[in-house]
Specification:
Structural class: mainly beta
Largest sheet: 6 strands, antiparallel
Shape: globular
Order of helices and strands: EEEEEEEEEEEEEEE
Number of strands: 15
Oligomer: single chain
Length: 230
């Protein structure tokens, strides 16, 4: 997968500029590349022999127990949140931009959508989903993404650091995405646990990510990445 042009940052909250100050119970962020307080569930994935033609985006559709989710692997990956009452499912798929705003499947709600993606190879792609539970004060392994990577927060609040001059705060129901080779590390500076989905779209057989030996800094000069949320 060729590295696409780098695009500008879109962040709904820039911590350096202040967003109401530090909340009660917040944790100090520890600069360390290794994971701490992060429990990652086994990967759920599907191989997509042929992506749709044209401009694509990644959609996260949410539904409840009252609506039937699609089968895992139909044209995306499925996660069911059994802790929610009633149970809530999320279906993640790469879709043509012309279908933006319409849930997949019908009956759900499109909870999050990336902006239009750069041109991607259409043959033999792999879509993978990892669920991460992040304890208060926890962090993920700093890594470089192997493809398009989407973070979608199911519960709690996290802070995504992607080598930009600011951190992007994501609350439940919000998401962000980065492109191939982007450094990324997710922190939970809040006083409560958080759960997020980590979704990858990349060529089949390619590693999801490459661990980094240094924590992702907010002050890496000369690099801009996509951070998009809704």
């Amino acid at each position: 997968m060729a590295r696409p042009p780098l695009l500008a940052v879109t962040a709904f909250c820039i911590l350096a500029a202040g967003c109401g100050g530090t909340s009660a119970g917040s944790q100090a962020i520890v600069r360390n590349p290794g994971a701490s307080g992060a429990t990652v569930a086994p990967e759920v994935g599907t191989n997509i022999h042929l992506l749709p033609d044209g401009t694509l985006y990644i959609s996260v559709t949410r539904g409840s127990a009252q609506t039937s989710p699609p089968a895992n692997g139909a044209d995306g990956v499925l996660y069911v949140d059994t802790k929610a009452q009633p149970n809530t499912w999320y279906f993640i798929s790469a879709r043509p931009a012309s279908q933006r705003g319409t849930p997949n499947p019908p009956g759900g709600v499109e909870a999050y959508a990336t902006t239009d993606l750069p041109s991607l190879p259409t043959v033999d792609q792999h879509e993978a989903l990892l669920k991460t539970d992040l304890a208060a004060g926890g962090r993920t392994q700093a890594h470089k993404s192997g493809g398009v990577e989407v973070i979608f927060v199911v519960s709690g609040q996290v802070e995504a650091h992607a080598g930009t001059f600011s951190a992007t705060v994501l609350r439940a129901g919000q998401g962000a995405f980065v492109l191939e080779s982007t450094p990324l590390q997710v922190f939970n500076p809040g006083g409560k646990p958080a759960t997020f989905l980590d979704i990858y779209l990349l060529p089949a057989g390619k590693p999801l990510s490459q661990p980094l030996a240094r924590s992702v800094s907010l002050h890496r000069v000369g690099r801009t990445v996509i951070m998009n949320e809704s």
